[in-house]
Amino acid sequence: MSNNDERPIIITGGAIREAHYLSAWDYFWLRILYALPIIGFLCLVVHACTPSHENRCHFARSYFCWLLFPILSLLVFTAYFILFERHFDNIFEGLFDGIEDLIEKIGRFIETIPNMIDQWIKQFSNL
Q1: Has residue 14 got a pLDDT over 80?
Q2: How many CB atoms lie within 10 A of CB 20?
Q3: What share of residues in the chain are helix, strand, coil (percent, to 5)?
Q4: Is residue 11 scored above 80 in pLDDT?
Q5: What is d(CA 59, CA 43) in angstroms, rounded to the nearest whole number?
Q6: Could you tell me if 64 and 90 lie in one domain?
Q7: Which residue has the higher pLDDT, 17 or 39?
């Protein structure tokens, strides 16, 4: 870069164009913009599909990939759950039975707490 702050020229595939760089604040505000529900998604699609600003285009595509990752993961998990539903029925039945047993044991323990306290009081009062 020269002293008069000119942008560098990039030559790719025979095309000559100026380099466009994004600052840290640009990335920050783009993330805020893309997080908006409807307007952000529209801007994300426009920025990802228009290669006029290469860095912004790549950032929008990477953000789009991060949006797709949880959606695809959810779809894979849902498909797996639907395909192997009969296996999950047995797992959940045992889980709920175990929880009921645990609740009963906790209830019995709580009922014995007053008796334990009375025994401790008698032991310490005899000292």
Answers
A1: no
A2: 14
A3: 75, 5, 20
A4: no
A5: 12
A6: no
A7: 39
